[in-house]
Every structure is written in C-alpha cells, then in structure tokens.
C-alpha cells in the first residue's frame, strides 16, 4: 500500500495534519497554562477576601482548607500601596521561578509552557497578577508545579488524541476522494493502454475520454489522439505492404511484356518510313527505361533501392531526351520547354536513375500546367560548382498545393497534382540521396515552382 498513489497520499495526509496540529498544540498548551495560573490567582483572591471579611478571625484548619481549595501555598495582596500577607501555609519551599502575568508576551508564554513540560521535578513558583474587579493593586501567590504539569500533560494528551482522530478521519476522506478522482481514472488509463497494446489495429480499443479531472481528461484526449494516429498508421502500413506485394507481382509480369515489346520494336529499324525511323529509337529507349523501371520496382518492393551505376555522360543530352519525351506526350502543345545546360557539362552519375528523377520533376510540372489550363513553360538548367553539380527544374505553373508542401517527398501522402500519390517525388528524393546529394524545393507559388537537385562531386566522381 505504501508504494501506491493512494497509500502514499494517505500517509502524507496524516503526517501533514499532525504537523499542523503540532503548530496548533504549542500555543494551545501555552494558553492552557496561562488560564490555569489565572484561575489560581482568582481563587486565591476569593479566599483572601473571605478572610478579610472575618477580620482574620479563622482557625488554622480553615485557613489550610482555603489554601488547598485555591491550590496555592500563600497569598499576598497589595491594597492601598500596602503589601499584606493574607494566607500562608507552614510548609513553603524556596521559590525557583517568578512569573508576572500582568503583561506577558506570546513568546514568553510559549517558552515558559514548554519549559514546564520538560522539567519533571516539583518546584515552587511565584505568580504575580492583577486582582479581578479592581479588588487591589496586585495579587501574588506561590504554588507547586507538579499539579500544573499534570494538568498540562493531561490536556496535551487529549489534544493529541483529538488531533490523531481528526488526522485519520481527514485522511480517510481524502483517501476516498483520491481513489474516486485520481486512482480509478489512472487505473482505467493504464488498462486502456495495456488493452490497446495487445491489439493496436483494433479501433474498438481506442480510449474514450471520460475523466472529470481536467488534467486527466487532457491525458486521455492525448492518448486517444495518439492511438487513433497509430491505428491509422498501422492500417496504412498494412495496405502499403499489400500494395507493395501486388506491385511486385504486376511489375514481374509487366517486365516480361515490355521485354517482348522491345524485341518487336527492334524490327521497326528495317522500316524505310522516315517517320518510323525517327521515332523508333525513342520508342526503344522508352521501352528499355520501362523495363529498367519494373526491375527497380521489384527491388524497391524488396525494400532495396539498387545502388547507382556511376558513369560519365553529358547532362545536356539527358536533359534534351527528357524534354523530348515530355513534348511528345503534350498533345495540346500548351507548354514550351527550355534546356539551359552547357554542352561541355559532364557529370558522373547513374544516367538511368537521373533520367527518372528529371522525368518525374518535368512530368509533375507538365501535369500541373495542363490541369491549370493556362499555357506555361518548363526549363531544365544546369551548372557546375566547386563541390558538385546543381540542376534546377523550373516551371510557370500554379504552384504546389498545401498538402503537397506539408508532405513533400513522402509517399502516399498526396502528390503535386489532384489525385496524385506522391510516389514520383519520393522516388526522386530517394535516388538523389543514393547519389549522396539532395533534392530541395526552392520556391513555389502562383508564379511557378522551382526544384533544385545537387550532386556532390566527392560522391559522384571516382579517382
């Protein structure tokens, strides 16, 4: 129980209440001592007045009885500047301490009370006070401390017992309150987490916030959000795994079909038609890239992106080939293409993979402009720097939508156009990373979009 939240709260409550009672006990016991001494002064005054009323004509037995009832040893009363011994016993010990109750401070009362509790020996003390009802100028008595200490101990014991009862009762009420308000909701939260961990794909195990305490309800709401997102992510991963398996099967069969189409396209080389002779190399190159793409897709389905096969080539030829392929696809001729790459710019990279990157970027730009319905321009620019090569693909399209900007380069989180999957940018970024470079979105807006592709020469070049 001591290791539980409610048990520790119960123990701490008892301790704190007892500490509070101790701070109350000290001034209470000081006040009790003061009242006790004042009561003895008042009784002594009454006894002395009774003696004065008889002009002192009482016997010793009656005088002893008056002193015993007053609880004092002698009484001195000062009236009209005259100090008079009114009552006195025969057995008076030397006075150890004198206490003046006419104007005591709180510190003095507390100090004297604690001192009396700690001193066990019976002593004789003198107590000075003012007579009640102005029956004189001063009254002074001597008394034994044993009865006073016994009364103080009895009073203190009763205070401690009462404090303990109050502490236990208060702690019990707080224990019940903590159980209902904190422990039960926390246990429910822990049970919900454990239950969800056993089957995170089961949406019925997602916690429904019900706590009445604001902080616990916020914790439940946060856990609910986390569970909802995790369940959705697990379902998406499951669908992606199934999709990946299906794509791998399709890519395997598609590779065989494309290989057959490539063999048939090779026969077009024997045609004498000029148009066929002009388009046949483009067709064969496209089929070859399609075969390579299916093979790469099979490798991607095995969570393996093939490493780049580095070789030297002219970037201008590859950029022109990408633009020519997209120009043939643009049936409405809404888009003009430009290539600003120096003829002598030679870089070392995987030409097939870089072709896929530039094709994805240019295709996305073409589709965005075509969907916008306004004529536009796409350009590929290249320049060489001291530490690598920089390639920029710019367009004058409508810009990327917010969803594409928020999930840039993440597959299946929305592409650059409506209905897109986002795979093109994700694949392009992964290929560039495989070359040790980076693909970045430089700017996007109503005036167009610019992507920048950087390949470091330290990675792309070999000694």
Automatic annotation (TrEMBL):
Family annotation (Gene3D superfamilies): 1.10.287.130, Histidine kinase-like ATPase, C-terminal domain
Alphabetical list of SMART domains matching this protein: HATPase_c, HisKA
Catalysed reaction equations from the record: ATP + protein L-histidine = ADP + protein N-phospho-L-histidine
Root EC class: transferase
Record-level Gene Ontology MF annotations: ATP binding; phosphorelay sensor kinase activity
TM region positions: 6-30, 159-178
Occurrences of domain Histidine kinase (ranges): 249-459
Domain of life: Bacteria
Annotated SUPFAM superfamilies: ATPase domain of HSP90 chaperone/DNA topoisomerase II/histidine kinase, Homodimeric domain of signal transducing histidine kinase
Keywords: ATP-binding, Kinase, Membrane, Nucleotide-binding, Phosphoprotein, Transferase, Transmembrane, Transmembrane helix, Two-component regulatory system
EC number: 2.7.13.3
One Pfam assignment: HATPase_c
Protein name from the UniProt record: histidine kinase
Lineage: Bacteria, Pseudomonadati, Pseudomonadota, Alphaproteobacteria, Rhodobacterales
């Amino acid at each position: 129980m001591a290791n539980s939240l409610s048990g520790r709260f119960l123990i701490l409550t008892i301790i704190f209440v007892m500490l509070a009672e101790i701070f109350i006990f000290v001034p209470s016991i000081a006040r009790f001592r003061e009242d006790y001494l004042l009561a003895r002064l008042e009784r002594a005054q009454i006894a002395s007045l009774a003696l004065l009323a008889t002009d002192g004509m009482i016997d010793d037995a009656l005088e002893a009885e008056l002193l015993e009832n007053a609880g004092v040893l002698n009484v001195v009363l000062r009236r009209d500047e005259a100090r008079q011994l009114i009552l006195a016993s025969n057995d008076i010990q030397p006075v150890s301490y004198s206490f003046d109750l006419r104007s005591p401070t709180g510190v003095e009362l507390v100090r004297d009370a604690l001192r009396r509790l700690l001193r066990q020996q019976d002593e004789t003390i003198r107590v000075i006070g003012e007579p009640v009802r102005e029956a004189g100028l001063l009254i002074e008595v001597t008394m034994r401390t044993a009865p006073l200490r016994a009364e103080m101990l009895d009073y203190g014991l009763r205070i401690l017992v009462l404090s303990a009862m109050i502490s236990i009762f208060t702690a019990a009420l707080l224990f019940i309150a903590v159980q209902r308000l904190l422990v039960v909701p926390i246990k429910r939260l822990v049970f919900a987490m454990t239950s969800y961990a056993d089957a995170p794909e089961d949406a019925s195990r997602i916690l429904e916030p019900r706590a009445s305490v604001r902080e616990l309800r916020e914790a439940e709401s946060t856990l609910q959000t986390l569970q909802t997102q995790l369940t959705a992510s697990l379902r998406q991963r499951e669908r992606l795994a199934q999709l990946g398996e299906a794509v791998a099967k399709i890519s395997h069969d598609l590779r065989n079909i494309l290989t057959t189409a490539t063999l048939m396209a090779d026969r077009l080389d024997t045609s004498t038609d000029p148009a066929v002779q002009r388009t046949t190399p483009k067709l064969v190159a496209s089929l070859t890239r399609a075969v390579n793409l299916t093979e790469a897709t099979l490798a991607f389905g095995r969570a393996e992106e093939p490493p780049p096969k580095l070789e030297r080539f002219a970037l201008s030829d590859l950029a022109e080939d990408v633009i020519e392929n997209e120009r043939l696809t643009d049936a409405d001729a809404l888009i003009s293409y430009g290539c600003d790459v120096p003829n002598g710019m030679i870089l070392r990279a995987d030409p097939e993979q870089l072709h896929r990157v530039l094709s994805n970027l240019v295709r996305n730009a073409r589709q965005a402009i075509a969907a916008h319905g306004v004529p536009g321009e796409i350009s590929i620019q290249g320049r060489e720097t001291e530490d690598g090569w920089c390639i920029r693909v710019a367009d004058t399209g409508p810009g990327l939508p917010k969803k594409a900007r928020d999930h840039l380069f993440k597959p299946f989180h929305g592409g650059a156009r409506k209905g897109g999957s986002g795979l093109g940018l994700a694949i392009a970024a992964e290929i560039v990373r495989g070359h040790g470079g980076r693909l970045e979105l430089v700017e996007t807006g109503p005036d167009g979009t610019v992507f920048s592709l950087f390949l470091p020469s330290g990675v792309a070049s070999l000694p």
